[in-house]
Amino acid sequence: QVQLVESGGGLVQAGGSLRLSCTASGRTLSNNAMGWFRQAPGKEREFVAAVSWSGGSTFYADSVKGRFTISRDNAKNTVYLQMNSLNPEDTAVYYCAASTIVTKRIPDYDYWGQGTQVTVSS
To answer: Residue 41 phi/psi, 5° resolution?
Structure first.
């Protein structure tokens, strides 16, 4: 059974940066695409970014393009989300997830972490 554990969330002022990490245990995820999603209070979970198994292809939601960067280190079984120029609209619980394909669709992801809270103050 795969377990995903996110870390790196916290409270940051608008304009600041955070780096989220998601580490997998149970088995290697080097053959899986990985994604980051977020869910703000009262809103549906939404796609943020995804990366192919090799790290060679990345995809972003329009709302974070140019500010967020997804990357992975397969040797460490870890995926990262570097978040810059944060604004209050980025406040949410951030989840990482694993899929067999690179996709923005939530149902295509098989494994999910418990999430880490990111709060951006104005």
So the answer is: -55, 130
